[in-house]
Amino acid sequence: MGQGSGIASHPPLQAVIGLGNPGSEYAETRHNAGFWWIDALAHRAGVTLRPDARLKGDVGRLTVAGTSIWLFKPSTYMNHSGQAVAAFAAYYRLDPAALLVVHDELDLAPGTVRLKQGGGHGGHNGLRDITARLGADFLRLRIGIGHPGHRDQVVGYVLHRPSQTERQQIDQAMAQAQAIFPELVAGRMAWAMQRLNTPAPGEPSAGGG
Asked: Is 124 in the active site?
């Protein structure tokens, strides 16, 4: 995806949505990397997300440099993320293009994080359901979890915990994305993409970026 006029005219960020599965049995699994990022962001800001049955998710409000941003974690299972995200966006009258969806990414190695706008779902069931209901114009923060090597192993892989080393790498990548978040809220999308999407020396890679 390019960094042309589409980014220059990007609307101000209104909400950040982390994808994952509810329940303690899934809390530490790779597929919940989006939840991990939201939880870390909320923890740093002292924000508590509270369940909202109407929206089928947990909702919080974060203020960054004078700008208020919604935080949201769907409580539907991953495959039905779009149900909750559509209800959330409709209730608060949010522009889909002003949403940042944070999710695990098989095609990036642990320790890698990338930012993109629009595009396909890449086989990610959460993105597939959101795209079906809201279109594909939303921003995506892709947190690398690596690939098991064969597509038949993907389901078991994403629903298991990463190794301790992998989790440390994922946490470091998430911290990198947290550090540029104020700039993202300020609308400096091209700058944020350049910072996150330019591989550092020795940075791992897996599959397509």
From this structure: no
